[in-house]
Amino acid sequence: MPWHLGSLNSAAAPAAINTAGTKPGPYEVVVAVIDGGVLPNHPSLSGRLLPGYDMMSSPNNLKGGRSTDFGPDARDAKCGERVVSGTYRTHGTEVASLIAGNGRDGVIGVNPAAKILPIRLFGSCAMTRADLLDAMAWAGGLPVAGVPANPYPARIINLSFSGGKTVCGADLQGLISRLAQKNIFVVAAVGNTFGKKLAEPSNCEGVISVGAVDAENNIENYSALDARTVIYAPGGGKDLRGNAPWHINKLKVASYDVDFKGDETPLAAARAIGTSYAAPLVSGFLSLILSQRPDMSPVQFLSELPKYTRPVNPTDKCPECSPKGITMTTLSVSAR
Question: What is the CATH number assigned to the segment(s) 3-326?
Answer without folding.
Answer: 3.40.50.200
